[in-house]
Amino acid sequence: MSMDLAENTPTAEELPSLPRDEDGPVFQEPWQAQAFAMTLALHAQGQFTWPEWAERLGAEISAAQANGDPDLGDTYYLHWLNALESMVASKGIVSTDDLALRKEAWDHAAHITPHGQPIVLPKVG
Amino acid sequence: MTTHDDHSHLSDVELRVRSLESLLTEKGLVDPATLDAIVDRYENKVGPRNGSRVVARAWVDPDFKKRLLEDASAAIDSLGYTSTQGVDMRVLENTARIHNVTVCTLCSCYPWAVLGLPPAWYKSFPYRSRVVKDPRGVLREFGLDLGSDIEVRVWDSTAELRYIVLPERPEGTQGLSESELADLVTRNSMIGTEKAASPQNGDS
């Protein structure tokens, strides 16, 4: 492999020690699994290619690092979700505006739902 | 009774995921049952056990090993572990002289079909960057101190090509069955950050 990859990265001494996992669940929270599954489902339908996906995810990770994310692996699915939103917007599948509106609707639905009951989105006309 | 702050709350990311899922469902692009099936597959059915069986087969069956090294995707497919992303896989054989270790420096491309989902450290920037710069140092942190006579090769995965390490068969395993051998093949040994376990301490 090419060692050029190392040129723009800090030296080993500048980096924190490696985070270690405990062989725990592969997803820390359910939303991570949902974001992962939606991506695979859309890819399976040919909405985007896997190289397109990898490039977008890589770009999100680089952008997060540029914004100060130490990127220790715990924010991985956040990058994943950012990449998925960006992908569906750029492919014209779901616009950023539609997402924002729907997010408000879900937030409202959560607020009017007593704790412990399933949160249901009211039918929109 | 409903008090003022007894309402439900969804975090920002939960709201974003729910929003996306409900919109995609309405457009007929995903359905919740399919999503559940995908999650179940990756949480419960796919995992490093698949890779362990591939390695154990290669240890006991020289013909399979030859096919595995020549065309990993086809050989792995023949055992029923098929990649759903349509990516090619390549198997890297460790020997007494060569130690292979894999990484994805760009994001975290990983041979899901045989190893399941990657561990957190594999996805972390420290691993992705340091294993390229200082593979021996990183391997030492994993407890693997390789002599200077062993060549260390680092392989960078891509969206189209994923690597799996074929670890060396441990000493003293002549009498073991294929499934007992598979128990010695750890996930990390197939990433290349450790060796396959020895029979005496391989009961973890």
Description of the structure:
The complex is a heterodimer of chains A (125) and B (204). With 125 residues, chain A is mostly helical. Chain A has a domain at 43-111. Chain A has 4 helices and no strands. In chain A, α2 crosses α3. Chain B is an alpha/beta fold and 204 residues long. Chain B has 2 domains: 12-44; 47-201, Nitrile hydratase alpha /Thiocyanate hydrolase gamma (Nitrile Hydratase, Chain A, Alpha-Beta Complex), CATH 3.90.330.10. Chain B contains 11 helices and 4 strands. Chain B has helices spanning 12-26, 32-45, 48-60, 62-70, 72-78, 112-115, 120-123, 125-133, 135-141, 178-182, 187-191; strands at 88-93, 98-103, 151-156, 161-166. In chain B, the strands form 2 sheets. In chain B, strands 1-4 form a two-stranded parallel sheet. In chain B, α8 (125-133) packs across α9. Chain B is globular and about 60 Å long. The termini of chain B are far apart. The mean pLDDT of chain B is 88. Chains A and B meet through α1, α2, α3 and α4 of A and α1, α2, α7, α8 and α9 of B.
Examine the secondary-structure arrangement and name the CATH architecture of the largest domain in chain B: Alpha-Beta Complex
Cα shape of chain A: globular
Order of helices and strands of chain A: HHHH
CATH class of the largest domain in chain B: Alpha Beta
> Termini distance of chain A?
55 Å
Largest sheet of chain A: none
Count of the separate structural domains of chain B: 2
Mean pLDDT of chain B comes to 88
